[in-house]
Amino acid sequence: MKVTTSDLLAILRRFRIANDGNVPRHIDQIMNSNPSPINQLVRFRFNKQMYFVLFDETAQDDEKYIMDQIYSAKSDATGILLLNPTTDVETHGLPFKGKDAYLFHCKSAKRRLDSILAERFADISRSTWQKYIRAGYVKVNGEVESTPKQEILETEMIESTIPDGTDFSDSTLPIIYIDDNVIVVNKPAGVLTHTKGALNDEFTVADFFRRYTQVGLDTTRPGIVHRLDRDTSGLIIGARTPEAFDILKSQFADRKAKKDYVAITDGHLKKDDARIDIPIGRDPKHPSTFRPNPNGKPSVTDYHVVDRNDRSDLVQLHPLTGRTHQLRVHLAHLNTPIHGDRVYGKAADRLYLHAYKLEVTIAPEQRKTFVAPLPPEFLKLFPEATHELGL
């Protein structure tokens, strides 16, 4: 049965909700569903009020049955099942085109704007809607609403204009290795591993991996099994198949993937070779940064000084744990921060930290070691670095 706005208006008039001054265009936001093969449920808005009308020949005025049909479309529906005002018999059903029509008037309490949007558009998360709202992409009753927690009635008019994603089809990254299972790239400094949120419009490693992987295509992290900080350059491996994803992910979780970095320090380390065994934890004064903390997570780094000049050391770093900012915090704690570390040291043209070697099993019985060439900036300060690292 096709239900038109004229049909809905006729029903509203017979229930004495609408009058002759109302016209079909006063009805909008129509949604049809079929809770069962024998009935039809229509949700719509009239004069900023939400209604359900159930067309069902078998309901026999059973309120529980009628409400169960409505709950199938909206599990938290609250309101009033209206009585048929056209008869002296107390009944809810109103004959309409050979069927019984039951009208339910929603009496919605106010709810948060982000919650309402997340419910209506289940494919977009609530946190993403919060970002869209703050960015000014949502209007309520024609006015931009930038507060996600703003409470509104569900019957109010909500409009959203979600921006189109940026086209990164011409953007690329240097591929170190690729086969049917994995892809390995040399990430430049300044490139994100994956997006930080729905409104990010930067090219990321994840955007590049999306072209080559079958894994996580409905997420912002397709193919991603580990990450590097934005300011760190070097090797990132991605999974191209679900099987490869499981193999790689477990190795990074179990610390069976071996990673080696090279860094240039501000100042000189006291020893040429040492192990840094210093727990680190989040800095409560600056929650996005970390600091040594005896109650923090165990953090262990082995280092070897490869070369020195008058102001810096060229250091090979091998983390035995994988804490966020581990290498940066450890070297800063020894009063030799990584050159260009704008968080834990002094800013420069870049952070001089490069993930140059990765040893990992990419398929059963297939262990490989990948190497990324040193960036030109490193070689400018240490011209013999490639030879000294055995690259």
Brief summary:
This protein is an alpha+beta fold.
Write up this protein:
The protein is α+β, with helices and mostly antiparallel strands and 391 residues long. It has four domains: 5-106, Phosphorylase Kinase, domain 1, CATH 3.30.200; 111-160, RNA-binding S4 domain (Structural Genomics Hypothetical 15.5 Kd Protein In mrcA-pckA Intergenic Region, Chain A), CATH 3.10.290.10; 168-254, Pseudouridine synthase (2-Layer Sandwich), CATH 3.30.2350; 255-391, Pseudouridine synthase. It contains nine helices and 22 strands. The chain has helices at residues 5-14, 63-71, 113-120, 126-134, 205-209, 242-253, 326-333, 376-381, 385-388; strands spanning 27-33, 39-46, 49-56, 79-81, 94-96, 99-106, 111-112, 138-140, 143-144, 151-152, 158-160, 175-178, 182-187, 233-239, 258-264, 273-277, 280-283, 286-292, 300-308, 313-319, 353-363, 366-371. Strands 12, 13, 14, 15, 16, 19, 20, 21 and 22 form a nine-stranded mixed beta sheet that branches. Strands 1, 2, 3, 4, 5 and 6 form a six-stranded antiparallel beta sheet that branches. Helix 3 crosses helix 4 (126-134). The chain starts with a helix and ends with a helix. The model has no long low-confidence stretch (mean pLDDT 93).
